[in-house]
Specification:
By secondary structure, the chain is an alpha/beta fold. The protein has helices at about 40-55, 120-130, 160-185, 195-200, 210-215, 220-235, 250-260; strands spanning about 15-20, 25-30, 85-90, 100, 110, 135-140, 155, 205-210, 235-245, 260-265, 290-295, 295-300. The longest helix is centred in the middle third of the chain and has 28 residues, at about 160-185.
């Protein structure tokens, strides 16, 4: 709408000047009902809405999507857009639809500096996995995920000795999954590995702080990296939190994570250079995340997990 202008619109109610580029045009604004004041207008709108509902009793106009002022994990189910089997992360800030990732997006990285919500997002993810699927949970020294230790189907690991036991147990699990696939391949030579492994029990490796993980299990780094690669080969999901301001090593485990193609940025990317650079003005604020997939970013509103 034009403020000051050399053009004067006619003294007719609803006439306005609209500027587009260098052109100024005259427009007539129409209302849905006739009225003399605000009270009469609101009453007329209500009557019009009732008439439309009577005419089309089984149809409803789509609601205008509005982001909530306070977004909790318990509210995610109220929104549409999520796919079956998808791990939900938050709401797309434009469409207000649920966005997330599939277990095939492995490893899936949660990147950010301290205090930006990496562990909160891990809690949101674990709430969707714990008790339903097999989860190997590597907690950090903060032990913020400790309450999942007794959850069904969750193996909680925090010591070097438990890491050694994990390698042996996981190698057996991978061998069983590979054996089942080869058996299915004999019966159907055209079967897709991705489709077959998706039919098996879902298995996830969840790691809070890759730097602590790489340091704690440095002694068998090559073997641990092999386990992680076998996990991907046999359809297992890998979800990790990466502290972007900590120095990154060059061991086999660190290099494995640096090669990731999927993840979400919840803070400053630092010097990780894992995903494409983001302009400072586009960096996510606290409670937001940039979901990276298919070579591009989507800005999400992230839920707050309340225990």
């Amino acid at each position: 709408m034009v403020g000051r202008s050399v053009y004067q619109p006619p003294e007719i109610e609803g006439r306005v000047l609209v500027k587009h580029d260098t052109a100024v045009n005259l427009m007539q604004v129409y209302t849905m009902v006739p009225f003399r004041d605000e009270v009469e207008y609101n009453a007329g709108i209500r009557k019009l809405m009732n008439r439309i509902c009577v005419m089309y009793p089984t149809l409803r106009a789509p609601k205008i999507p509005v982001l909530p002022e306070k977004f909790l994990y318990s509210m995610v189910a109220q929104y549409g857009g999520g796919r079956e089997g998808q791990i939900s992360l938050g709401l797309h800030k434009e469409t207000v639809e649920v966005r997330g990732f599939d277990k095939s997006a492995a490893p899936f990285l949660i990147l950010g500096d301290a205090g930006k919500g990496k562990t909160n997002l891990l809690k949101v993810i674990l709430e969707q996995l714990a008790g339903k699927h097999t989860v190997y949970l590597f907690d950090s020294s903060s032990r913020e995920l400790f309450y999942h230790k007794t959850a069904p189907k969750v193996t909680y690991l925090e010591t070097k000795e438990e890491g050694e036991e994990f390698i042996d147990e996981f190698e057996e699990l991978v061998a069983v999954r590979k054996s089942l696939f080869h058996k299915a391949l004999e019966e159907n030579p055209r079967i897709s590995p991705k489709i077959f492994y998706a039919s098996l029990d879902e298995v996830y490796l969840v790691i809070d702080d890759t730097d602590e993980f790489a340091e704690k299990y440095a002694f068998p780094a090559k073997k641990m990296a092999e386990c992680l690669r076998f996990a991907i080969d046999t359809g297992c999901g890998i979800i990790v939190a990466v502290h972007t301001t900590k120095p990154k090593g060059f061991d086999e485990v660190s290099k494995f994570f640096k090669a990731a193609n999927d993840g979400i940025l919840v803070g400053n990317p630092g010097a990780t250079s894992i995903f494409p650079n983001v302009a400072a003005r586009q960096l996510p604020a606290l409670g937001e995340g940039l979901l990276y997939r298919n070579g591009g970013y989507e800005k999400l509103l992230l839920p707050k997990f309340e225990e």
